[in-house]
Structure formats: C-alpha cells, structure tokens
Amino acid sequence: MIKPKNKAAFGLSSPIHYAWIVIAIAAFMHMAGGSIRQAFGVLIVPLQDEMGWNAATVTLAYALASIVGALLAPMSGICTDRYGARKVIMVGVITFAVGALMTGVVSEIWHLWISYGLFLGVAQACFNVPIITTASYWFRTHLGYGIGFLQASHGLGPAVMAIVVSALITGASWKMAFWSIAIIGGIAMLLLMAFFRNRPADIGGGAFGAAEPDEPEERDPVRERARVKAFRTSMQSTTTFWKLVSVHFLGCVSHAIVIIYIVPIAVLAGVDEVTAAGVLSTLALVSVSTRFLTPVISDYIGARGTMATSFMWQGLPVLMLFWAQDPWQFYMFAVIFGIGYGGEGSAFPVINRQYFGRGPMGSSFGWQQFGAGSGMAMGAWVGGALFWLFDSYTATILVSTFTSVAGAAVIMSMEPTSRMLIPNWEDTIPAVPAAADD
Fold first, then answer.
1. 368 or 405, higher pLDDT
2. Which pLDDT does position 251 carry in this prediction?
3. CA–CA gap between residue 68 and residue 256 (Å, rounded)
C-alpha cells in the first residue's frame, strides 16, 4: 500500500502537499471576506431607493472601510509577523460576522458607516495581509501558481456575490441578505481555520518545492524581532518598495471607480438594476482568468512588464463607457476591462519575491496594502464627488483611465526583476547577546 508522504494538520497525512490545502482555505477566506466589499456597487441603488440616501453618503461607507483597512494594514502585518497569521485572521472572522449582522439592520446612514465602514474595514485588514503573507511562506517554488489560485478566488467571490446579494435584496430583504452572509460565511470560516497553519514548520513539513522540511519554529523572540526589523528596514530603504506602494494606490483608485460606479452608470443609461449587477459580476468573473494567469506568467518571465501591460489593459477600456448605452455594450466593456482588472494587482506577491527574496513579509505587505486601501477609498470618494460636482461621470471615467496609465509608467521606471535588490539583508541583523549561564 502506498502511504501519503505529505504531512498535514493534527498529525495526519495528506495525498497532496499541505501548501495547496492552506491555499484552498485561504482562497475561501479571501473569497468570502472580500466579496461584500468588492460587490458594493450593487448596494448603492437599493439604498438610494429604499432609504432615500444619496450616492455620496452611501459610498462614504465603502470609502471608510477602505480607509480603516488601509490604516490598519501595517499593524496587521506587524501582528502577522509577531503572532502569526491564524490569530489575526480569527479577529477578521469575528469582525466580519459582526459587521455583516449589523449591516442587515441599518436604519440610519451613520449605522452603515459603523457596520460597513468600521467593522468590515477591520475585517479587510485582518484578511488581506495575513493571507498573502502566509501564501508566500508555503511555496519555495511555483509561487505564481499558489498566488494565482488565491487571487482567482478573490475575483470569483464578487462575481457570485454581486448576483446573490442583488437577488436576495430584490426577492427577500436587506436583512436576509446580510444575515445569511454573516451566519453561513462566519461558521464556514471558523471551521476552516481549524486546519489553517501559518508555516510549514507548524506541521513539521517543508514549503512546496523545498528539498528538506523547515526547521521547527523554536526561535529566540529577541532575535526574531531583530530579523523582522532588519528585513523591513532593508526593503523600505529601496525606492522600489515605495514605488510598489504608489503603484498599488494608483491601480486601486482606477478599478475602485469602476467596481463602485459601473452599476449606477449603467442604471443611469437605462439598464435595469439586476442586469447592471450582471455587468459587475461579468467583469469580476472574467478577471478570475487573469488573476490566475498573471502571477504564473510573472513567475516565468518577470512581473514588471506583465504588470505594466495589465495596468494599461485596465485603464484604456474604461473610455468605452463614454458611448456605452445598451446592455450588450456594457457587457462587452465588462469582458475587456475584466482581463486587465484581473491582472492589475494579482502579481504583487510575485514581484515582491523577485525583488526582495524570502523573508518575514508581513509588515512590508501591510504597507503595500495601505497603498491599496488608500486607493480604494480615494476612488470611491472621488467618483461620487465628481458626479456631485459635474452631474455626470465624464470626469470620473477620465480619472480612472489616467491613474491606471500612471501606474504603468511607475512600474516601468522600476528595476528589472532579474536582480534581487537586497540579497544580503540578513547581514544587517545585529548580534543578539547569548543568555548568561546560571
């Protein structure tokens, strides 16, 4: 009898490497935890019709969630490096469930700002940074495939959730929609976290592609903190690190405008609400393919050129919205835009590995997620503010295109990914005095 060789949680064995099980769990967390935020566009019109709130005050909830997520992202990264991803994600599960339950019973606009803006913003920070950080630890080789699968799930969630939430709100009630998400999603995530592990050493195994198992995690806490600080300082001393933060910001401004305002833009053109929600689902569904393929391609040919191409592909198709009037035109836009949208942000973990190597990435990913969250908040706010100012989406569309093109330019100004930027970062770790003998 052939016995499985791969170690798993609880001392069990697995027929596949446990890295893929961790990625599958992380993918579900990514999909469930981020789906409400990414599908926010379908909530605007119902809240305008049922509550009488205007688009600017409604989208402020999304902007607040993005701001809270952005501000807490560096802290989430620090906590991930210090306490492990699993504990941070558990905080995210709790705040996600509470926020969704509260959102189901909002009656005043400020209720939405607290339930969605605050609680789901905290959940966002507790999901995004630890999940990406953990994925990077579990792969010595073929990181692109692991990240691709993870990022594809992040696109699939909104594709499904936009239609589900819209149908539940239309056919049942607002409360039913969000309470179903909180209860079913929360229970499923809690069960899966029992099998989630931070690093291969937690089960006595090795990363995917490693020749030998990782050493057990019995490190000196003082030295480990010095190691984290040395890696963070080395990364942040490069201009490329801060360019990556700015690129995250620009790309997220661009697609935040689209995913938040594509439904209102389509409804304004005469498309019914469910059909307009289908446009958002379509672009999210199409993005699944490039969310998977872009990290894989980047792993083989380098992430810089691949990412720049995706940024251009995300930005230029937005100009199609100037003449889109019929449903088929919006769906055609969704297909074309979705290709670039999926590739825009999915290769960031790969380009980080190519530039900075293997190290404690939590706090550094946190800063880059700060750029992303700030961009999402800015895009959400700017789109509504420009519509309020000009009574049209013309300026909003132009801003979306400009920020993506600017992001591509910044990417191409960075160094080629063929050379690691901080190969000797471990040499900067200060010596830790040995403990005195008793």
1. 405
2. 94
3. 16
Q: pLDDT band at 41, cuts 50/70/90?
A: low
Nearest to 156 by CA among 294, 287, 313, 332: 287
Question: What domains can be seen in the chain, in order of their start residue?
Answer: 14-200+221-428 (1.20.1250.20)
Rounded to a whole number of angstroms, the CA Rg of the chain reads 22
pTM greater than the 0.85 cutoff: no
pLDDT tens sequence across 140-171: 777 778 888 877 777 676 667 767 777 777 77
Residue 326's pLDDT band (cuts 50, 70, 90): very high
Exposure string for 344-375, b = 16+ CB within 10 A, e = fewer: bbbbbbbbbbbbbbebbbbbbbbbbbbbbbbb
E strand or H helix at 14: strand 13-14
- CA–CA distance, 67 with 113 (Å, rounded to integer): 12
SS3 139: strand
> What proportions of the chain, in percent to the nearest 5, are helix, strand and coil?
75, 0, 20
Nearby residues of 277 by Cβ (< 8 Å), 6 or more positions away: 41, 42, 162, 163, 166, 263
C-alpha 118/C-alpha 62 separation (Å) is: 10
Alpha helices, DSSP H, located in 204-238: 221-236
Does the pLDDT of residue 254 top 60, yes or no? yes
Facing residues of 139 across strands? Answer: 208
The pLDDT of residue 117 is above 60: yes
